[in-house]
């Protein structure tokens, strides 16, 4: 289980190696994404709180990267944070997510990205529920839900 200490270590000293890499140009991403998905996932945008399609979805399944379809989170680790964005306490796999320090808007935050294609997902904060204490705050537009993968 990852904790804030692991997250800081990844952000400062380097991220875990992904299983594979997917790299495309912006023009190629624009062909496969909607304008809104492109704005959030490739241009580091943020959807307005409470507007994301996946905020109020509690169906069992996997949350995959909207760009490269890599599984990122599982419905069993989703929780209601009332932040207005889908929130998770852990990634589906330790090397699914890439972490980077983000100092925009005069704040020090940790940006979370897909470790396979660098899609912007959102941020992770150290104020989540125990035992991990992590809150991955993720844009709905950065993910697609795959309900064919249910936990048994
Ligand atoms: Zn991806």
UniProtKB/TrEMBL annotation:
Biological processes annotated in GO: protein repair; response to oxidative stress
EC number: 1.8.4.12
InterPro entries: Met_Sox_Rdtase_MsrB, Met_Sox_Rdtase_MsrB_dom, Mss4-like_sf
Listed Gene3D superfamilies: Peptide methionine sulfoxide reductase
GO cellular component: cytoplasm
Cofactor(s) demanded: Zn(2+)
Name this polypeptide is given: peptide-methionine (R)-S-oxide reductase
Organism: Gelidibacter sediminis
